[in-house]
Every structure is written in structure tokens, then in C-alpha cells.
Design brief:
- This protein is mainly beta.
- It is built from 2 helices and 12 strands.
- The protein has helices at 3-6, 60-64, and strands at 16-19, 37-40, 73-77, 81-82, 98-103, 108-110, 114-117, 122-125, 127-130, 141-146, 155-163, 167-170.
- The strands form 2 sheets. Strands 1, 2, 3, 4, 5, 6, 8, 9 and 11 form a 9-stranded mixed sheet that branches.
- 33% of the residues are buried.
Length: 171
Amino acid sequence: ADPRLASGARSRPRALSVLATSFPPPLLVAGQAAAAPYYVRPAGSDRAAGTSAAAAWQSISKVNATVLAPGDSVLFAGGATFAGLLQPVGSGALGQPIRFGTYGSGRANLAGGIQVASQSWLVLDGLRVDTGAWQTAGTTRGIRTSDAGTGVPNVGVRDCEFANVPVGLLF
């Protein structure tokens, strides 16, 4: 036990980095649609196609409203902060996970955290969840999952950082 806590002092949470095993690269099967890359940046537009950095979406809300398919990827602008809880819709498949990551330089910060439920074959790579101040983070978690429904099998977390949140990973 931490002796500082016995006296009533609170210890400050530290940033947490997570490295998990990697999945094989996506495979294309004959007759199957090609995977779509989606881009998100603060100067984007949720009316845009989202399929290039020049035609990027603007918000996590747009990502949450899009049903993602196996092999799709969602890339957030590096160095930018995005408000809102990422609650993606859709599951990947063996050899075709849905990937969430960063493009450009620096890590994208998903300040509202990430929540997945009844999904599988997702990869979260190179992201940051930082609320800015752990004292006011409230119930924001780095990544929260649910074991209700089908649970969350085959979800990989790799090279992600969690700072200023009460809990980095809540599986």
C-alpha cells in the first residue's frame, strides 16, 4: 500500500502506454469490397466524404454515426484534440480488423475516451486519451469495454497513451 494514501493524500495518476500483440495485415478476398480509409481533422467537414485528408470529416460524432466494415480504418489528425466519446459501430473480421489510428505527426487525442461494446476485431493504434486535468476527468476512461451482449473479443491496443483519466483501460 502507498503510505501517502494512508494519510489521506491522493496520488496523481500517471500516463499509461499500452502495447498489445499485432494482427496480421488485412487480406482481400475475391468479390469483397475494398476497405475504406476515413480521415478526421478539426478543419474537416462532416458533410465531406471523409476518404482523404483533404476531404476529412470533422468530428467523432460523424465516426460514431458511420457503420464501419471489416478492413476499414479511421485516422485522426496527429497533434489534434477531438472532443466526445468514440463509440464506433461495426466489427472487423479475422485478417481484416477495423483500425483506429493517427495520420500526420504527433498523436491524435480523443479527449472523451473510447468505448466499445459487442464488437470484435478492432485495433486501436497510436492514439492518446488525455482529458487535460485528472482532477476534473469525472467518469472519462481511456478505453471502456462491456462484457454485455457478445463482449469484445479480439480487440488490440497498441502504442496508445492514457493521461489524466482515472482508469486507462477498463475491460
